[in-house]
Amino acid sequence: MSTPGTSAVAAPQHAARQDGPPAPQDALPAHFDALIAAGETIEPRDWMPDGYRRMLLRQIAQHAHSEIIGMQPEGAWLTRAPSLHRKSVLIAKVQDEAGHGLYLYSSAETLGVDRAELLDALHRGQQRFAATFNHPALTWADTGAIAWLTDGAAVINQAPLCRTSYGPYARAMRRVCQEEAFHVRQGYDLMRALCEGTPEQKRMAQDAVDRWWLPAVALMFGPPDTEAGGADARTAALGAAVSRRAIAWGIKRHTNDELRARFVDSVVPQAERLGLTLPDPAIRWNEERGHYDFTPVDWETYRDALGDDTHWARQRIAHRRAAHEDGAWVREASAAYAAREDADGRTEEPA
Amino acid sequence: MTTTSDTAAETARTGQDPDLAAHLLRLGDDALVLGQRLCQWITRAPTIEEDLALSNIALDLVGHARTLYTRAGGLDGTGRTEDDYAFARADREFTNALVTELPNGDFAVTVARQLVYTHYAVLYYRALADGPDPDLAGFGARAATEVAFHRRHADDWTRRLGLGTPESARRMQAGLDRVWPYTAELFEEDDLVSRLAAAGTVPGPASVRPSWEREVGEVVAGAGLTVPAPRWQARGGRDGLHLEEFGVLVAELQSVRRQFPGGTW
Questions:
Q1: Probe site for chain B from A79, A179, A196, A332 (most B CB atoms < 10 A)
Q2: ipTM of the shown complex
Q3: Does the beta-carbon distance from B87 to A82 stay under 8 Å?
């Protein structure tokens, strides 16, 4: 469905970029660089390099899509949550994710695309979401493991984005991060309850951690971008180049591998407190580095195993598309009603 | 009057009132079962805003069920917890009105179900707020405020769909037609409710029916639609006689809990 209102949001930006007088145009890149160097935010009306806009749009859209698709594995357990307290917590969490999706789509819209276009790109498989969610949530404990590990990884990934250089994204991320941190605590609490329960409950918790550890540690942080992180020289060079560019523009602040290491450092002691074993025998404290060692991420394996053609990747998109298509008549009705109200409002205005 | 003071004295002495407990369970079951149905929408709604709105409503409803169940557990002498009521009863022990368990259908059926329930619930909870029991009155006031938001959501959608496109108007009318035969049960006064109402413990649901009919009539007419006049009216939910689909709803609700006997959550 086309949303007539939103293209108007994009129009002034393109106009500003194209209609700017030629002489100051030359000064614009310098001004942009100066803002970045000074740690100031870039705002929608500021000039920005096309590459910057494209990189941001790709990242924000992927992030928004991940929130929306990420509702599915947990959403499937809303009707089965084993206590009314846990049910309330899970409803609130999934509701937060819908809210995050909305903030992020709004941020993306400031870059001159509308939500309908972004959703269309998601449904056509032209834009991606976190491949972590191409993983099934098979038991109730999976909802805890997702909140604790996947959201835990997201918080570490996203905390620096609260200071990212693009203003609307940074502001959205501040709200997102506050809520995500709360989800992680709730996920940990859910796992703690299972670990303190019956042996069967504890087995369910361990099984969930066995299945969600690698998706979190591998897929939530993106490909290795340092040789130390396990990439071969070519992949590392490629990843590092992208990361360098993103860091220079202030979009990212750390390499994928730095953030991954920070995640492992935070989770290992938590797992020990829970009495759960992270499924990586290589995890041990490295006194010299002051970090935990862990098995380098075999990125290709994960990308292949959870790629676009797998059952779950297809299922996530099919579920989204079905909701979108089933709701088309509702959105059409809503648009027709709004148009009629606008028209009525206009005719009444002169009085 | 003797009955009233006897019941009040009995309640004061023991803190128990099995009739009131049974009535609160009905209201709690209405809220939980409708909340469960709305949970089935989440990730499937027509827009992300609706995923958010429906989850928000579901969350409030589960909250109402928790308060009502907890109070019932104190009144029926069993000391049961909110989770005992939700997860350890059999299908036939649930006493929600059938309208709350109606399958979601399309978005218009869900809106119609929300319309009839929310107008009833705001009116009835407000009436509870004027009752003699301070806890229940407090709950009624708070819940009525929350459901008033759900009611606005339902009113807005009824209007939007009724006046949107020919297809949405057709579906909205079909939604109303689908749910209307199940509305009378909300106002039904059996012996239990009659005793409570006579004792002045709670208002009789029939007392709010005229206001309900006026309110929903205005919304439906304002949406260019017709209030259905079904010849047949369903009943049975208050006696634990449900639709066949209800067994699946309860099985799903309780499945994890029942797979792990003795579990703590």
A1: A79
A2: 0.95
A3: yes
